[in-house]
Amino acid sequence: MAKKPTEDLFESSTMTFGEHLEELRVCLFRGVIGIAVGVLIGFFVANSVVRFFQSPLERAMERFYVKRALGDYEQLFGQVPVEVRRMIVDEGLVPEPLQLEAAQVAQALKQTYPQQFSNLEISPYWFTAGDLLPGGEQTLARKLVEEGSAGDGAYGRLWQLLDPAQQEGLKRLAARPATTNRPLAEDQTLVLGVLNTLAGRPELHRAPELANLSGPDQDFAAALGRTITALVLGSKQPQGDDTIAQLRARLAQHNDPETSRRLNKLLLARLFPDALRKARVNLLSVYSWRPVRVRFQVLNAQEAFMIWMKAALMTGLVLASPWVFYQIWVFVAAGLYPHEKHYVYLYLPISVALFLGGASLAFLFVFDPVLDFLFTFNQGMNADFDPRVGEWLGFVLILPLGFGISFQLPLVMLFLNRLGLASLEFYIQQWRIAVLVICVISMVLTPADPVSMLLMAVPLCLLYLLGIGMCLFMPRPRNPFAEAYEP
Questions:
Q1: What is the Cα–Cα distance from 484 to 2, expressed in whole angstroms?
Q2: β 283-291/93-101 pair status
Q3: What is the sign of the dihedral through the CA atoms of 157, 162, 168 and 171?
Q4: CA distance 56 to 294
Q5: CB 242 within 8 A of CB 214
Q6: What is the CA angle 305-308-311, rounded to 5?
Q7: What is the Cα–Cα distance from 303 to 309, expressed in whole angstroms?
Q8: CA distance 42 to 314
């Protein structure tokens, strides 16, 4: 007959309440010292930590700018040449359109390099490709050929000022079927040559057929606006300035070629409103190639300091966490029995590994696809993104933390099973409900986008299967009081 054991199995592990308090005080003090040392180290590496956490967003924004640059170039010029694609994709250079006033560029070159560019003459009132509306080449040609070749009116006067070669070219362009493709280079050259020829002829503004044309500031809409303003304010209606009339009066007093060209450009813009933009100075459209540069914004002076403090505290907690966990374990282990310490040694590394695995998965494999998905909406809306460091750090900390906590699922399942709250059969039978709960939890712990939710839900479903396997194959602890005896 087995006898009831008389020896106290846990005599060597028992502690008084006072000894527990003293052990707790010592462990807390050591843990605080460890955190203080970690935060002190964090102050020296906080800037590097912030830059490290900025790297996923920088990569995503660089891809966003490169993709948008390719799309803009293709929309403007058609197929992207291989040389341009190499510059954009491989070298990270994106084209940025610039509008330069050609006359000012010429003047600056003449003043800076007089020997090389002393004979460079560029008028601000020359016609350029930017003055033409889409399809304006053929529209202007047909207008001149249909109404100018008849020889009457203002268009007839324009037709007479052209040489035979220009007239023949306009006839060929007007007879060509209409097309929606981009204009041919020779068509633009022909039409711009015709316009600049007409703009340089003083006979144009002296022609009686154009004497009644008013300036662009005498439009009906502008006059109506001035009238409404005067009625609302109760003031005298102002008179609009007729630029064309002023230029005519100035030329009557002094003949100036530039003033003559400016007046002719205004008259031509009035005669061909369907083909030419409203008169403007001569602009030179060029592209500058700049490297993709991502800059993070702060909204006030103290925000950068607070971010630095937050990064230092976070770094200190991470660096001190092994020491803090060790102190917690020292305190807990002092009150555990030998058979309980064995299972803590087994499950604690698994918990730490799952947490680090979840956080690493979020940082290494989740940030990039999530940011690429979110930036597709910026590209669709043609909206720029100016990231704030504070908001991004909040996002970059919450997502890995959520992944790390959620990856504790197998241990939670094993814990509930060992307590008798959930059986192995229950886990297997309720797997559909478990998948639904996992999806809901993934929605709560991730941003409001389906990509990050799926990237969390799929691994959690696999971890649910791992939890079932752990409940099935992990050994159960032996109860030291389970030794049977006969009375």
A1: 7
A2: antiparallel
A3: negative
A4: 12
A5: yes
A6: 150
A7: 10
A8: 8
DSSP state, residue 7: S
Separation CA 272–CA 287 (nearest Å) = 29
Q: Give pLDDT, residue 42.
A: 87
End-to-end, the C-alpha distance of the chain in Å comes to: 8
**Residue 454 tokens, joined:** 């799926």
Cα–chain-centroid distance for residue 121?
43
Q: Supply the pLDDT for residue 37.
A: 92
**Rounded distance, CA 453 to CA 403, Å?**
10
Tell me the whole-structure pTM to 2 decimals. 0.63
**How far is residue 15's CA from residue 9's CA, in Å, rounded to a whole number?**
14
Distance between CA atoms of 104 and 122, rounded to whole angstroms? 9
**pLDDT tens-digit map of 306-355:** 888 888 888 887 788 778 877 877 777 666 666 666 666 777 788 778 88
* Domain regions of the chain by residue span: 17-68+300-473, 100-291
CA 115 to CA 112: how far, in whole Å? 9
Residue 269 CA from chain centroid, whole number: 40
Q: What is the pLDDT of residues 90-148, one digit of tens each?
A: 888 888 888 888 888 888 888 899 888 888 888 888 888 888 888 888 888 888 888 88
Question: Cα–Cα distance between 197 and 187 in angstroms, integer?
Answer: 15
Q: How far apart are CA 117 and CA 23, in angstroms?
A: 88
Tell me which residue of 109, 270, 146, 299 sits closest to 198, measured CA to CA: 270
Cβ burial of 452 (10 Å; 0-12, 13-18, 19+) is buried
Question: HSE-up of 120 (CA within 13 Å, CB side)?
Answer: 18
User: How far apart are alpha carbons 451 and 466 in whole angstroms?
Assistant: 23
Give, to the nearest 10 degrees, the angle between helix 367-381 and helix 389-406: 140
Least Cα distance to 366 among 463, 465, 453 occurs for 453
CA angle 237, 240, 243 (to 5 degrees): 170
Contact between 428 and 468 (Cβ < 8 Å): yes
Percentage of the chain with pLDDT > 90? Answer: 4
Side-chain-side CA neighbours of residue 471 (13 Å): 26
Q: Which amino acid is residue 482, in one-letter code?
A: A
Amino acid in position 111: Q
